[in-house]
Write a structure and sequence with these properties.
The protein contains five helices and no strands. It is mainly α. Helix 2 crosses helix 4 and helix 4 crosses helix 5.
Amino acid sequence: MDKKRSTQELIVEFAKNSDIDLVALESLTSGVTSRIESFGIEKFNSLPYAQRITVLNEAIESYFSWAEKYHSDLENNIDGAFDKLLNEVYELVKKDKH
């Protein structure tokens, strides 16, 4: 009997087969999923297939728009975004050393 694979297993397999960074793909998946959840899963599932594809594409575009803005904020240190990220990285490194 075939075991139904989890979403995580499918993501890992896709990342390996596509030579895509797993963490980046997980971030994209999480971001898109949260946007679909905000839209409403029942509402999403009740749409005709073509409309679900449209909503999914809009969720992907929204994720990438956010990612571009975040990247820009980091580059320009808007509201100390780069400094905050740098401090988080330092804290993680300190925890790993102990």
